[in-house]
Amino acid sequence: MSNQNSQPRFNAIQTVTSRKPKIVEAPKDEKGNTLKISDFFGMSTFSLKQMKHKLPNDVYKRLIQTIQTGKKLEPEVANVVAHAIKEWAMENGVTHYTHWFQPQTGTTAEKHDAFLNVDSSGVPMEKFTGSQLIQSEPDASSFPSGGMRTTFEARGYAAWDPTSPIFISEWGSTRTLCIPSVFISYHGDALDEKTGLLRSNEALTERATKLLTLIGDKGVTGIITNLGPEQEYFLIDRAFYTLRPDLIMTGRTLLGARPPKGQQLEDHYFGSIPSRVLAYMTEVEYELFKLGVPAKTRHNEVAPMQYELAPIFEESNVAVDHNHVTMEVLRRVAKKHDFEVLLHEKPFAGVNGSGKHNNWSMGIGTGPAELEGINLLDPGKTPHQNLRFLLFLMATLKGLHKHAGLLRAAIASPGNDHRLGANEAPPAIISAFMGNMLDNMLNEIEKDTHKSLDYKEVVIKLGVSKLPTVMKDNTDRNRTSPFAFTGNKFEFRAVGSSASCALPVTLVNCAVADAIDEITASLEEKMKTSKSVEEAIFIVVKEAIKETKAVRFEGNGYSEEWVKEAEKRGLPHLKTTPEALHEIISAKSIKLLTGLGVFSEEEVKSRFHVRIENYNKRLLIEGECLQTMVETQILPATYQYATVLAGGVAAMKAAGMTTAAPQTEALTKLNQVVASAQAELKKMERSLDGIRSNENEEAKASKIASELKPLMESLRTQCDALENMVADDFWPLPKYREMLMIS
């Protein structure tokens, strides 16, 4: 018989129920007084405030010019900046520095170097030069390159990105200076996620400034994209986590019967935050505030033990860096509170998955004072401003419509395949939600037939001049839309919770830049025959509304009716990651990305190969992990329980019972499910063997999606049935009811 007192699972339950919230204290000043957030916000970053204080005025101005224009930093300026950074870092207990970059692994990477140097006489000293600040040389051989680099070609360069703040990473008693960087090969190929993002911002700036000049908004020299990534995540106690090989190996539960209560009552959403969790969130926020990350909102999400952290908007380059910092802080602080944070898109079956809603907008960064800071997706106060808004709104919709397949590829991942299309996640069909008020206005503009009326009368009649009064508080939200307009921004809801925001934002920038090119060309033609620029804009907007009508959808994206309707409209429905990733290397996508100068053809193809290989590796790990768990945990526990049932049957027969023992029926049913599980296990093992022997990564991916994944689900179904049949004290794995309901 199993003994609950010796069962690791029951020991874990005891441990979890006895935990107390950690005491988290706010940072204090030298006198022991508690600091306000504004007092310590950014204290661990070499911010503009620090730069102005530490640098000579002329050096500071030249550095700011570099940050704003992207010009190369002169060596003499770099040396002064490097010295100031080193002095500031050492004042804060830093001993090492690293060029912190984002390889195509979806995470971040770093190699630490000490400030320590030894002169020719053997005297130690701290030294940090301009050349060391600007560039380092981490080994590039082991990072995924998609075929651009071979193992013996190891040279790669991490180059400082001065547009993102340098910061100090603190873990325990160790403090490291992190220098946000791009990562390129010896030949200049982008090996990372950030380089493409920076290039896409430049491409968007070039095209948007040209369009703005054409419509009369002259003097604009810089366009910025803003981003606010809402980060969803699950928490699980480490006592449970360490008993789940699937969570340790894959980040999600490969097995687990659904409990009677999940999220049906919606009692967790926006509910009172559990005390242990609140202590954890508080410490996370303190750490983020010190790092200059503007964490704004925290709350319970829909699923049990699911939560969300949302920041204030920032420029997309900084926001992407800060989201990586956020994910790392979430992980590190979780361990201090005896939690493990799960960023997988679908760690638990039957309840919501986790996304990272990318709230994206574009605006004027540098230019005339009256134009700086204008959000181009924000309605204005005059007919001209609102026509400008409509022009950039339609550019976004044109980009979404034309490059829907590419934007689907941007959010493709093994984890997101489990999430898209269910439990409040948007479907794998890319569409845009506008809200009834704006959607009706676009429809009115489209069907307008008053060509003989004066332009200004038409603008007034159709409500274009009144956009601010009807837009701000009348744009509803649609949780089933992957790309929803929410008043002055688009919310790209389909991005996965574990993903880097870099590629999704890069490809949105590219799609919109391409559409702006087309709109600019069309506007130039219309201006040749129109009475005014405004009339030409109105005609171009009207044409774009007709052209993009198919991608606008206001209804329920989860419904089967929408799937059929989307097919009629010609919208792509790419259900799996392998299907979606092929959109990256389509002729249309390669033409777009190379034409904008964001990626070379080799860099485009590398991103496809890296992601296909990642898909294969992750799914094979899942398959092998499931196989091991079934063979070494599920079946042995079931056999042990079957032995007990069989013993009961034998004992009753020995006692002379003539009727069938109650245990007989239970044993028969149990053996039937065991036989089914064993049969499914053998099928899955054969599939794994066949996939491993195939050297073609694309063929592997296709086989995994069409064959291995369904077999894993079938095996899971049998194992979950066994969980509901085997006596509770025999089951070795923490159950959903424990992991999601006990904290």
Explain how this protein is built.
The radius of gyration is 29 Å and the shape is globular. The strands form 3 sheets. Strands 10, 11, 12, 13, 14, 15, 16, 17 and 18 form a 9-stranded mixed sheet that branches. Strands 1, 2, 3, 6, 7, 8 and 9 form a 7-stranded mixed sheet that branches. By secondary structure, it is an alpha+beta fold. The model has no long low-confidence stretch (mean pLDDT 90). The protein contains 26 helices and 18 strands.
What's the quick description here?
By secondary structure, the protein is an alpha+beta fold. The chain is built from 26 helices and 18 strands.
Provide keyphrases for this structure:
single chain; 743 residues; alpha+beta; 9-stranded mixed beta sheet; 7-stranded mixed beta sheet; 26 helices; 18 strands; 49% helix; 13% strand
The biggest beta sheet, please? 9 strands, mixed
Q: Kindly, what is the distance between the CA atoms of the first and last residues, rounded to a whole number of angstroms?
A: 29 Å
Strand composition percent: 5-15%
Average pLDDT, rounded to a whole number, is 90
| Portion of residues within helices | 40-55%
Please state the overall shape, judged from the principal axes of the Cα atoms. globular
| Count of extended strands | 18
Contiguous uncertain segments of 5+ residues? none
Number of helices: 26
